[in-house]
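A favour between colleagues. Tell me how you read the following sequence-structure pair.

===
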Amino acid sequence: MKFLKNSEIDFKKWDETILLSSAPLVFAQSFYLNATSPGWSALVKGNYKCIMPLTANRKLGINYLLQPPFTPQLGLFGRFTKETEKEFFDFINAGYKYIHIELNHSSSLKANGIKEKKTFIIDYKTHYNYNSNTKRNIAKAQKAGWVVETMDEKDVLAASKKLINPFLKKLKINASQIKQFEQLLINAMLNESLTTIAVKNGENKICALGHFISNGKHAVYLKGTTVDKVGHSGSMHLLMHHAIEYYKKKGVAMFDFGGGQKASIAQFFEGFGALPLNYSEYKVNNLPAPLKWLKK
């Protein structure tokens, strides 16, 4: 097993390993991590047979390993055994005083500090059904004459800054992280991985906007918002319906709704026939006092 600095990583081999992994998640691809965790390093075993991104920070002379914003489910990728996974985690436990990361759904790590999380997905190989409320909202939006469009790349950043950024601020996402989000959109466009979908009303005004990123196997709903929250027009239901069908036609294996910890959001996703996919959060706090107390 080798530790590699960012400049030493072979991004082509890295991305090939991610795509051949049992968890081929777009979050772990180099273009994605370069935006959300600039300068990330890695652990690599063999000729990129097994890999793990290290999204580290250093403050007050102390090494931290933290989950980057907008980036769930990292951990190990490639071909590995339980013993290999333990070897990787022994390394990070020895090298970092504070660890708070998420492991992808293929992880089988059993340790103190593990907590279950979940996202919601549609596995296109299995049957999925919309519930009556979702069908009703889609029909309402269609009856109102709402139009669904894939946004031209030249318009994406301006629309996102106008509509998505205020939503991110309401979520208490700071200015630095919003810049990372914007860089992620840019990187995804350069990688030909971004699709931005807008729902417009009869006056050509955007009522809902959503960003989606895909690597051909895994498609994720990154962020989105509705402008017509009071009117309950069904615009977001229509947007999601369009995205689900779009990626199904593209031959993607899994559509990831990108969350669902909150009950009301989970209910919205379940309305499309989505099922929970469990993964893990891993937290270790070996900081010296009083920092240990502050990080609890």
The longest strand covers residues 275-285.
